[in-house]
Amino acid sequence: MGLFVAVEGIDGSGKSTVIEELRRLLPIYATKEPSDGPIGRLIKSWALRRGTSDPYTDALLFAADRLEHYQREIAPALGEGRVVVTERYVESSVAYQGAAGVDIKFIELINSRVPTPDVTVLLDIEPEKAVARIEARGGDAEKYERLEFLRAVRSIYLRRAAERGYVVLDAEEPPATIARRIAELIGARSSRA
Ligand code: TYD
């Protein structure tokens, strides 16, 4: 079996850039959620564009996408012994749908069919700085990108990280530095396996 790594963080925390850097350092299988599968595409084309008005519906869609993504893409790659790095996973649902008012127990229950990653990394940044980054890249704010909301998302992420021992990295460090740190964590885990 390979190693399963999840990279989490609020919008604008630099997850994609860090994963791009990580690819230069290690042979990884990089993937993300919402996925490229049919449910992920439905989420991107509809749910994230103010399609749903009920955060429980969002939670169910993200959980369904995740289970389909895990079975179609992640499990086979892990089965080949690869290091799989997913940008967003269960903790995105806990933090975002939790901040939108969904009972976290409910989120955990509907996500209980997928395994917990071996390593979860949280890229932590102040929401003001993250939103400035999003604006600088000209990104149109999706439903979940408002500042007040991102403050709530960040606080759930940090609380969960403290409770569950996730690795919290300062997302204001250069992406290459953060990627090196993640590569070290992966190296340490792989040599123990
Ligand atoms: P993402 O694709 O990371 O954003 P970007 O468009 O910048 O690539 O994620 C899209 C949005 O979906 C993001 O605001 C977070 C949200 N999201 C949830 O609310 N719950 C989830 O479970 C996941 C995976 C994402």
Number of domains: 1
What structural class do helix, strand and pairing data support? alpha/beta
Strand content: 5-15%
Characterize the largest beta sheet: strand count, sense, and whether it forms a barrel.
5 strands, parallel
Q: What integer value in Å does the Rg equal?
A: 16 Å
Could you list the spans in which at least 5 consecutive residues all have pLDDT below 50?
none
- The CATH architecture category equals 3-Layer(aba) Sandwich
Verbal overview:
With 193 residues, the protein is α/β, with parallel strands linked by helices. It has a single domain (3-192), classed as Rossmann fold (3-Layer(aba) Sandwich). Helices cover 55% and strands 13% of the residues. It contains eight helices and five strands; from the N terminus they run βαβααβααβααβα. It has helices at residues 15-25, 38-45, 55-79, 90-99, 104-110, 127-136, 147-164, 175-192, and strands spanning 3-8, 28-32, 83-87, 119-124, 167-170. The chain has a five-stranded parallel sheet with strand order 2-3-1-4-5, with helices on both faces. Helix 2 packs antiparallel against helix 3. The radius of gyration is 16 Å and the shape is globular. It starts with a strand and ends with a helix. Bound molecules: thymidine-5'-diphosphate. Residues 11, 33-34, 48, 62, 88, 92-93, 96-97, 142, 144-145 line the site of thymidine-5'-diphosphate.
